[in-house]
């Protein structure tokens, strides 16, 4: 992206900040007032004209002030990400530290989404860690009814995952115990991704299995190790989006987002599409969205997690004119707090 000189950058970042706070075009007099007597209105007008010519600012009417373009927002985001480690965290976001008192990782993740929304006044979301990197400690198959089995998976980090299955055959308690011991002995210490791959290989070579029932049970429990079975997503703060003046004029973006929120699987697929882009704190906005028609929204996300548990995402969704200087550090801080919380499991 084109590099601005110091004064141009200062004015641009100030326009982005004032626009996010006032929801109105920013004029030269407003900017000159912010600088006191250090900068004249004429100098500010000249800088604004230069920024407009370079595509960073837009003028809606001849006599109106300027509004930031997508190029301006991306420049602002890039500037903040480059300084992220040195930015001071907002006092309100420091209160997020006490969410680690929750009883389970799922509760912590859900609480994080709620606190993000409350602290930043946009839609906060968080996904549970993706199970592909989780390593198995023990497995137990439990008969619940004649038609249903429950599989309980315990990870090396102490997480407990449960999933129901329709049982196609009748297995005795002794057989279920043998199956449980077999799975625990064979796959202890394996990550779920490798377990899934090995189960699929065994099922393709089913004729090599000495016990037909073992083949049946391997096929039955294989879905429990899939990524789709292990992920969940929580969100809070829809009301903040509905009250946003910027989004009230773009019902298409709001409708597209709500359609994704209505079905968890759709939202997870949307997040999966941007997963590779979010190796660290990152921002998706405008035409960077994989979902067409969501051009007025910005998504800030950061990964969290520890080896052996897997990674999750935590972030904020709001209008692209939000205060990135507050939300980006807040998302980054929350991801670090979730990582620290994960270490205790």
Taking the alpha carbons of the first and last residues, their distance comes to: 42 Å
Major sheet details: 5 strands, antiparallel
Strand coverage percent: 15-25%
**H/E order of the elements?**
HHHEEHHHEEEEHHHEHHHHEEEH
Task: Give the uncertain stretches in residue-range form.
Answer: 88-96
Mass-distribution shape: elongated
Helix content: 40-55%
Number of helices: 14
**Would you tell me the structural class of the helices and strands?**
alpha+beta
Lateral strand order in the biggest sheet:
7-3-10-9-8
From the alpha carbons, calculate the radius of gyration and give it in angstroms.
25 Å
Number of strands: 10
Provide mean pLDDT, rounded. Answer: 80
In terms of topology, how is this protein built?
Blueprint: H1 6-22, H2 28-35, H3 41-53, E1 57-59, E2 66-68, H4 70-82, H5 91-94, H6 105-120, E3 123-127, E4 136-143, E5 148-155, E6 160-166, H7 173-187, H8 192-204, H9 212-221, E7 233-236, H10 238-242, H11 245-248, H12 251-262, H13 264-275, E8 282-285, E9 297-306, E10 310-319, H14 324-342
Antiparallel strand pairs: 1-2, 3-7, 3-10, 4-5, 5-6, 8-9, 9-10
């Amino acid at each position: 992206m084109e590099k601005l000189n110091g004064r141009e950058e200062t004015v641009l970042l100030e326009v982005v900040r004032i626009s996010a706070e006032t929801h109105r075009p920013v004029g030269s007099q407003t900017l000159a007032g912010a600088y006191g007597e250090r900068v004249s209105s004429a100098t500010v007008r000249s800088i604004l004209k230069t920024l407009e010519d370079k595509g960073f600012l837009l003028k809606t009417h001849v006599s109106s002030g300027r509004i930031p373009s997508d190029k301006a927002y991306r420049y602002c985001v890039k500037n903040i990400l480059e300084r992220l480690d040195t930015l001071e965290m907002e006092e309100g976001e420091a209160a997020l530290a006490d969410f680690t008192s929750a009883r389970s990782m799922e509760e912590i993740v859900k609480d994080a989404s709620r606190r993000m929304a409350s602290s930043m006044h946009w839609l906060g979301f968080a996904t549970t860690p993706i199970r592909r990197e989780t390593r198995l400690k023990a497995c137990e198959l439990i008969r619940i009814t004649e038609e249903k089995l429950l599989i309980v998976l315990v990870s090396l980090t102490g997480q407990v995952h449960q999933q129901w299955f329709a049982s196609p055959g009748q297995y005795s308690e002794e057989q279920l115990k043998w199956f449980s011991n077999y799975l625990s002995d064979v796959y202890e210490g394996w990550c779920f991704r490798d377990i899934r791959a090995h189960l699929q290989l065994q099922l393709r070579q089913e004729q090599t299995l000495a016990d037909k029932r073992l083949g049946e049970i391997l096929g039955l429990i294989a879905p429990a190790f899939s990524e789709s079975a292990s992920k969940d997503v929580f969100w809070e703060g829809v009301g903040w989006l509905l009250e946003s003046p910027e989004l009230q004029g773009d019902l298409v973006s709001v409708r597209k987002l709500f359609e994704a929120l209505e079905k968890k699987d759709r939202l997870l697929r949307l997040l999966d599409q941007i997963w590779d882009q979010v190796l660290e704190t990152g921002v998706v906005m405008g035409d960077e969205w994989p979902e067409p028609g969501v051009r007025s929204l910005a998504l800030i996300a950061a990964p969290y997690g520890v080896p052996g548990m897997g990674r999750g995402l935590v972030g904020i969704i709001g209008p692209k004119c939000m205060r990135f200087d507050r939300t980006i550090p807040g998302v980054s801080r929350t991801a670090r707090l979730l990582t620290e919380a994960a270490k205790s499991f």
